[in-house]
């Protein structure tokens, strides 16, 4: 009996690699719906929740697209693989997702022009970049592995993370082999592993990676993964505490047109107090949740027009962010919805008391009905921007939003976002949310420690000499570059 057991054990040892390869086609197809778990050395159990059928995401440059179940299954594989490796933090998971999104859009790509046999392995399509294969477009000629190994999503993920236990250690270098990767900008860290010919393109997918990670996982305390390193299944009914804040509009789409605090009202010419900060942008520009939270308001509300309010718990404190002037068709959430930082929640409009398409952004300390505070200072304090802050101001203002009317689409007087003629107001009195007469781009700065570029403003619209610039006339043309190719270079 003992002899038979010994023989069986030896057989399993020799057959294990083959069994792993055979099992890949089953585990990594859209069938990954059951909860899986592993253990972080020195940490806690990690579990990835059910994979949804699809997920709408928005890149840093404002492009919105939908990931399918197969792509999200590959994302779950990357998360589980990284979470099982000592030294891989939450940032490491985000970096890996950014790289796979950029290189393959989370698809297992064969490459029949270089390796015809690669089509014999489970794949999501055929690529043609040099001799690159798989999720991370790794090249056999560069030493990343054999064709069989690189057509295994688990192997690719482990190779990307690298480190002493990585299958390709010590070269080519994985993430853990890059000195100081924890202090690097996430896009630069991804580039350091990928050695791509297009080093700047990874950062565009950071908000997408964050959304994926928050959707598929939560922390052991029941919060989403943005709050820590260890991750467990997403299931929560209360607003989880977080420390991550992002800018509420995509990079390169906005111009700061009116700061928080006392001002001369752009329509009435009277002294007034502005309880938010205005960012002019083309009609339909995506609006992003500034932090993880729960939607408390999604409706038309007087002078605000289309209004969304989200409550957050940030560093243990309750705060609400408000987003105003969307069209009815530009509100994409409902009260009670749970949202994640960077999630596409609505589109810029010009309903209510507004002179042209823009975001009127407010921050309310204490929650939905809390006290207003300077949004620019708040975003700056949370490393989401580097906006100018008024030298004076008060927490409470005299703005009256009772006279607004829910709008539909722009009337002819506000139809051209780049027009330079004076724009008449849609309403007779517009105490808040209107663009001032002189748009001023804000400077760019890091969103986190290290040389990161935060979502910055669009170029100021040019106007003929002496022409007035008010309301929607200050709105810039879209400055959203096309999505770059996922072809890598020197790998």
UniProtKB/TrEMBL annotation:
GO terms for molecular function: metalloendopeptidase activity. It comes from the Bacteria. Residues 338-491 are annotated as: Disordered. Pfam families: Peptidase_M23. Residues 472-491 have a biased composition (Polar residues). Transmembrane segments: none annotated. CDD domains: M23_peptidase. Residues 273-375 form the M23ase beta-sheet core domain. This is M23ase beta-sheet core domain-containing protein. It comes from Sediminivirga luteola.
């Amino acid at each position: 009996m003992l002899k038979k057991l010994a023989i069986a054990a030896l057989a399993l040892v020799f057959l294990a690699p083959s069994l792993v390869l055979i099992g890949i086609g089953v585990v990594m197809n859209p069938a990954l719906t059951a909860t899986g778990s592993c253990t972080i050395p020195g940490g806690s159990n990690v579990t990835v929740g059910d994979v949804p059928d699809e997920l709408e995401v928005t890149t840093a440059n404002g492009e919105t697209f939908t990931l399918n179940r197969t792509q999200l299954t590959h994302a779950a594989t990357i998360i589980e693989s990284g979470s099982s490796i000592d030294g891989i933090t939450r940032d490491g998971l985000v970096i890996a997702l950014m790289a796979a999104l950029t290189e393959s859009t989370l698809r297992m790509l064969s490459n029949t022009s270089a390796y015809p046999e690669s089509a014999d392995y489970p794949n999501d399509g055929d690529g043609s970049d040099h001799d690159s294969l798989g999720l991370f477009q790794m090249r056999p000629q560069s030493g990343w592995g054999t064709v069989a190994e690189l057509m295994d999503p688990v192997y690719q993920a482990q190779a990307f993370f690298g480190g002493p236990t990585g299958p390709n250690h010590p070269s080519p270098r994985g993430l853990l082999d890059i000195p100081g990767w924890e202090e690097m900008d996430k896009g630069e860290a991804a580039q350091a592993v990928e050695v791509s010919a297009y080093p700047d393109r990874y950062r565009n997918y950071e908000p997408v990676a964050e959304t994926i990670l928050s959707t598929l996982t939560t922390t052991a305390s029941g919060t989403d993964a943005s709050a820590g390193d260890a991750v467990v299944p997403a299931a929560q009914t209360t607003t989880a505490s977080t420390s991550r804040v992002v800018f509420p509009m995509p990079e390169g789409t906005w111009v700061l047109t009116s700061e928080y605090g006392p001002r001369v009202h752009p329509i009435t010419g009277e002294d007034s107090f502005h309880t938010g900060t205005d960012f002019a942008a083309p009609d339909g520009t995506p609006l992003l949740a500034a932090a993880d939270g729960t939607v408390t308001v999604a409706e038309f509300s007087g002078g605000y027009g289309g209004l969304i309010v989200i409550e957050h718990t940030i560093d243990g404190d309750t705060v609400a962010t408000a987003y105003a002037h969307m069209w009815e068709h530009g509100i994409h959430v409902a009260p009670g919805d749970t949202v994640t930082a960077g999630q596409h929640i609505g589109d810029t409009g010009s309903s209510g008391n507004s002179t042209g398409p823009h975001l009127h952004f407010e921050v309310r300390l204490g929650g939905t009905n809390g006290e207003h505070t300077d949004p620019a200072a708040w975003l700056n304090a949370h490393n989401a921007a580097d906006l100018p802050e008024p030298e004076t101001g008060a927490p409470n203002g005299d703005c009256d939003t009772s006279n607004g009317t829910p709008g539909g689409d722009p009337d002819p007087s506000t139809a051209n976002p780049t027009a330079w003629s004076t724009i008449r107001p849609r309403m007779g009195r517009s105490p808040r949310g209107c663009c001032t007469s002189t748009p001023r781009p804000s400077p760019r700065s890091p969103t986190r420690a290290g040389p990161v570029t935060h979502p910055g403003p669009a170029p100021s619209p040019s106007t003929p000499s002496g022409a007035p610039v008010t309301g929607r006339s200050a709105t810039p043309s879209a400055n959203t570059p096309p999505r770059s190719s996922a072809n890598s270079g020197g790998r």
